[in-house]
Give the backbone structure.
Amino acid sequence: MSCKVGMISLGCPKNQVDAELMLARLHQGGYYITNDESSADVVVINTCGFIDDAKKEAIENILEMGALKNEGRIKGIVVTGCLAQRFGEEVKAELPEIDVVLGIGENSDICNAVAAAYKGDGYCKIGDNMNLCFEGERVLTTPRYTAYLRISDGCDNCCTYCTIPKIRGRFRSRKMEDIVAEATRLASRGVKELVIVAQDTTRYGEDLYGECKLSELLDGLCQVDGVKWIRMLYTYPDRITDKLLDTMARQEKVLNYLDIPLQHCNGDILKAMNRKGDRESLTALIGKIRAKLPDVTLRTTFITGFPGESEEQFTELCEFVREIGFDRLGCFPYSAEEGTFAAAMPNQVEDEVKIRRAEIIMDIQSRVVAENNENKLGSVQQVIVEGYDDYIKCYFGRTVADAPEIDAKVFFCTEGVGLADGDIVKVEINDTIEYDLLGALKVEE
C-alpha cells in the first residue's frame, strides 16, 4: 500500500517509546513515515490521558487533524495511547473525526489500524493493557545521540490521585538480558546517552527476580561500548537504597542525577496520597544521598492543593523547598481525576488556591535556581552538544545535570572550533540567564 503515515506523540517518554515501537512496525509493514502530518495520508495520535491538561492537549490535536481531514488533506486518523485505553469508546463516539481507536494493549495491531483508517473503515479496539508489547525495533524520535530505555511498565503503588495503574496495568519488568541487548543495539546506532524510564524505576526486577535488580542492571549497561551517560528518571524515595547509591558512586557512566517525585513533604498529606514518608524522613534521605554523591543533581515534583491541604501544610512544603534547595523542580496544581480515590475525598481545595500555591512554590524555586547557577560561575561542566543556534551564533547543549526536554540548556561559544551534535565537551561557565547557563568551550591544552 502506498500510504504515508504521520505520528504525533504526546505525554511522557514512556509513551514516546510506545510511539517508536509502532513507527518501526509501520516501517516494516511497508508504510512511509513522514514528519509532516499535513502531508500524511493517515495520522496516528499517540495520546496521554494522565491529567485534565493532557486530555485537553490530546483532544486539541485530534480536532486539528480532524480539520485537515475535513479539508481532504489527510484520509484517516488513528488514536492510540493512554487516552484511548482509558476512554476509548467515549472518545470514538464523541469525536467522529477519528477512524480507529486502539488501546495500548493493541499497539501491535497498528498496521491494520492504519490500513483501516486509510480506507475509511472505523473501529474501536481496546483490549488488555497487560498485552502492551515491550520488545522490538524502534524508530527513534529523539536526537541520534540520546534515547529512552524503558525497563518496566505499569505500577503497583496505587497513589490515590493517580490513574496510571488503571491505564497501564500492573507493574512488570523487562528481562535484564533484553534491556542490555537493546542498549547494545542503540549504542551501535550512535546513541551515547541512555535515559532509563519506567513508572517506578527503583522497583525494577522485583516481579521477575524476587528483589530489586536495578544496581545489577546498571552494572550491565555500563559494559555496553559506546554508551557514555546513563541517566535515571522516576526513582521512588522509599526504594533509594545504599546499594543503588553505592553503584552510582562506583560507576562513572551512571550520572549523579536522581529524579525523585516526592509530591509533598507533610506526613498526613503523603499518607492521604498513599505514599510513604514525612518531612523528617525525606530530609534524612536527601542528606544521605548528598553525603554519598556530593555532586548529585536532585530533581523532584510536587502537587499543591491536594484534598485537605491546609495553609499550615502548604507552608511546611514551602519551607521544605527552601531548606532542601532542589536543583530541578516542577510543581503542579492537583487535578481530580475521574475514578481515583482522591477525587472522592472531602475538603477539595478550590482551583484558584491550588494554582496560587503552585505559583508560590515555583517562585521560591526560581530563587533557588538563581543561587545555584551563580555558584556554577567559573566551573567547568561536561556538556553534550545538541545543536548550533544561527541567530545568536553559538552552540547549545545540556550538562550532566540536565535531562532532555525537561531541564535547562547551556549556550556556549567555541572561537571557531567546529562541533557535531552528540559531542561531549567541557564548557567553562561565565554567566547565567534565568534557568540556563552561558559559557565558552574549554580547550584542552
Remarks:
- The longest strand covers residues 380-389.
- The chain has a mean pLDDT of 94.
- The chain is about 35% helix and 25% strand.
